[in-house]
Amino acid sequence: MIIDIHGHYTTAPAALGAWRDRQIAALQDAGPAPSASELHISDDDIRETIESNQLRLMRERGSDLTIFSPRASFMAHHIGDFQTSSAWAAICNELCWRVSQLYPDHFIPAAMLPQSPGVDPATCIPELVKCVEQYGNVAINLNPDPSGGHWTSPPLTDRSWYPIYEKMVEYDIPAMVHVSTSCNACFHTTGAHYLNADTTAVMQLIQGDLFKDFPTLKLIIPHGGGAAPYHWGRFRGLAQEMKKPLLDEHLLNNIYFDTCVYHQPGIDLLTRVIPVKNVLFASEMIGAVRGIDPTTGHYYDDTRRYIDSTPYLTDEERQQIYEGNARRVFTRLDAALKARGR
Amino acid sequence: MIIDIHGHYTTAPAALGAWRDRQIAALQDAGPAPSASELHISDDDIRETIESNQLRLMRERGSDLTIFSPRASFMAHHIGDFQTSSAWAAICNELCWRVSQLYPDHFIPAAMLPQSPGVDPATCIPELVKCVEQYGNVAINLNPDPSGGHWTSPPLTDRSWYPIYEKMVEYDIPAMVHVSTSCNACFHTTGAHYLNADTTAVMQLIQGDLFKDFPTLKLIIPHGGGAAPYHWGRFRGLAQEMKKPLLDEHLLNNIYFDTCVYHQPGIDLLTRVIPVKNVLFASEMIGAVRGIDPTTGHYYDDTRRYIDSTPYLTDEERQQIYEGNARRVFTRLDAALKARGR
Hints:
Two copies of one chain form a homodimer.
Chain A: E1 3-9, H1 14-29, H2 43-61, E2 65-70, H3 72-75, H4 82-102, E3 107-109, E4 111-112, H5 125-133, E5 140-142, H6 162-171, E6 175-177, H7 189-207, H8 210-213, E7 219-221, H9 232-241, H10 247-250, E8 255-258, H11 264-273, E9 279-280, E10 292-293, E11 298-299, H12 303-309, H13 315-329, H14 331-339
Parallel strand pairs in A: 1-2, 2-3, 4-5, 5-6, 6-7, 7-8, 8-9
Antiparallel strand pairs in A: 10-11
Helix pairs in contact in A: 2-4, 5-6, 13-14
């Protein structure tokens, strides 16, 4: 079984974007925001966008199940205030839940949070609780920079984030540390801001001692960990200078890297440097890079090909990356699969 | 011959830091700034700090010549205004020039610029001219984020940077794109801000068309290019979606990556992915990572060992990375060496 732990509903029906546009326009005009009931998306609308896109490619590439969350770049937590994010997150999370209800064998949801710059992260708890308890979400996406490229929130090790971590530990759900769109002209969203956030998160976790306070907390660093595995020597050396434990102990009982690295040498490095137990299969399909690599003739984001081809894994290790690790890290996914006899 | 293109005077005599502290204190008290003449550093002071540190390690590791610039994290362009940076840059650049005068076989200077947030980069030209014409500098360090982690300047492709590029082209000197200390709590200076800036710069250059306007401009992306080589597939794919030329043509006639990557797998990836002509030997010694790697028993930043051991280079290619590329990119270095019969 092949589990892709990083997929977003990037192909949602156009009505979703139109509703969001109206919500943003209302902010600008200080007019009344549209209500959630004004958004109409039918099951057929959902089926059409999923079957012709994600599900088609999953079948072509041979992956079975995707952990599916709202489109990351559209979370745009910097827009409006908590009410804005709250209404938007509720709509997006409901939509991913509906996808999982229509295709229970192929999609299981992960939630976005209604974060807002300068607002206490604890305000996200009710949406988180709803998504886990009512929608069967198996994970959350946590944005370390709700400002969208201005980095005005404190590091992830700050106590203001702790209410989220407490709830994660209680439910035993992991968080993917994932920023949203950049509204800073310096940072291209998917080419700079995403990767920078991944690198930044790893370094914040090295500087702090978060996992002493939360020994069972699980964080996923997407996009192959940003720059971290490529610069693993640098990170080991910096941790050493800060008198931190070896990274195996300091980080690798709690953090995981996904395989959203879109060429063979990158996956070779990842699987050579990072222990197998800390690597989770993912493609972020359909996402930032949708084209075909002219040097291989295959989609850049068809990451399964790289995993299958890397010399740094045995078949058994490959299966850990495809399935075993995901079932260990996303315990609610494992329970849901077992309940269905898988 | 082995040329290290990335060294900073991180070990400057304590009097330098004390002068800077007085300069900063004067800003806080709105008192008079210390004058440059109040700083006293003798040739013996310089000799002591260089011979016991950089020169000792160069001899141990077998590198011959270092392109030497002021300590990057101490540039701190966010402090004070243009006058503050101007006085500070003049002092630091003079000091690196003195090192090069005392050890002409081993050090040649590269200049920091008196950048200041919100100030027109053109104001840096007089210092740049002085450093090239009077001090024999062969390159500059250009800070894409003088705010120190708030990223308030426009991208490097913005026309406000063009006066610097025009002068670089006129003198045929490259710039290393190098940020300074981070005053944003989210970003660890050497573990996050440096790498993020490298990644960010590469993506800015992909988004723009800077090298159409400046076909002979040369930019060095330090720290192995941040996350870029590890995510080269992602960057190729993003460029493709933006209808840009292939990166070989779009970037690789103008940008270079150094080898400040502190473990073997990282250097293996760099030399496998990036053409040899675009890789420049460097260690950033004595810099961010000063310890000994317990897994190898050698200094993390002894990058020559990784270059010597990588299977992705022939001996001839290794020599290009150690010497040939540096002489081609830093033409004023090559001229200076030839003038000395080297």
